[in-house]
Amino acid sequence: xxxxxxxxxxxxxxxxxxxxxxxxxxxxxxxxxxxxxxxxxxxxxxxxxxxxxxxxxxxxxxxxxxxxxxxxxxxxxxxxxxxxxxxxxxxxxxxxxxxxxxxxxxxxxxxxxxxxxxxxxxxxxxxxxxxxxxxxxxxxxxxxxxxxxxxxxxxxxxxxxxxxxxxxxxxxxxxxxxxxxxxxxxxxxxxxxxxxxxxxxxxxxxxxxxxxxxxxxxxxxxxxxxxxx
Length: 229
Prior knowledge:
Blueprint: H1 15-43, H2 49-61, H3 80-95, H4 100-108, H5 117-126, H6 131-146, H7 150-158, H8 167-176, H9 181-196, H10 200-208, H11 217-225
Helix pairs in contact: 3-4, 3-5, 4-5, 6-7, 6-8, 7-8, 9-10, 9-11, 10-11
């Protein structure tokens, strides 16, 4: 019997093959870990200067803002008398529709408010008002309650013994006054006839007189023609 030839082991069963495999696997795993570590470092967000400064910014934002100290208005230095004079002037302008000059005189009058000249001057210098509107309101009052003529109202508005408005203010009032002067003349004629028992012709003369009512001739004629109606 021939001597059996010694059977060789497959190479993968040899111990050195497995040792080599283990070494190769260990080397591959080490490379993978290094690669993952590098990827993590690359993906890590960079810390910018603004992020580092953020705590300081937040601290600055939380600092207490000191309230602004406002200076006291100059008005606080005005004497009490001056302030009350201004209040009184406003009352005359708003409730009685007086002119600027009439209010000023009323403030200092011995028969009026008796303020000092300085207090009255302060009041008028600080009183802001529409004097033309006041003149118009006065004109409406004269027309509606006293049935005055256009010329009579105009003269009363500018008179030194009347309302003391300026010529410009009075003219504005007359130009914007919505009144029926024929009707006013008739109401005046009735008053003269009823209270003074005047004749129609005497009433007519009184209505047109420059010393009387100052209606136009046409307005007086209308009044007389409708006096008994």
